[in-house]
Amino acid sequence: MYTPEDIRRLTWQSRRGMLELDVLFVPFMEQAFSDLREEDKDTFVELLACEDQDLFAWLTRRSKSEDEKLQAMVEIILDRVQPS
To answer: In this structure, which topology does domain 4-81 adopt according to CATH?
Structure first.
């Protein structure tokens, strides 16, 4: 279970310094993170540990993560944050 302090820390970590990532991660943390299953929350935390260049490529669909869990989380983020 993630405490309010954990949520604040993760929200801060979501600010990557790369605008393209910030506009996806920060709204996702603010609007969707609390609705995730615990396993998905853990996967999101793993995703935050990845390199910005990899994240950018995955989130712009230029490539896919070889880790199926991480790729599934990328799809969850894109589905929740990007307009249809």
So the answer is: DNA polymerase; domain 1 (1.10.150)
Structure tokens given for 64:
């896919």
Position of tokens 């309010």?
A: 4
Domain ranges of the chain: 4-81
pTM: 0.91
CA distance 36 to 56: 22
Tens digits of per-residue pLDDT, 33-72? Answer: 999 999 999 999 999 999 999 999 999 999 999 999 999 9
Q: Determine whether 14 is exposed, middle or buried from the number of CB atoms within 10 Å of its CB (0-12, 13-18, 19+).
A: buried
Question: From the CB of residue 8, how many other CB atoms can be counted at a distance below 10 Å?
Answer: 11
Q: Are 5 and 58 in contact (CB under 8 A)?
A: no
Residue 39 CA to residue 20 CA, distance in Å, equals 25
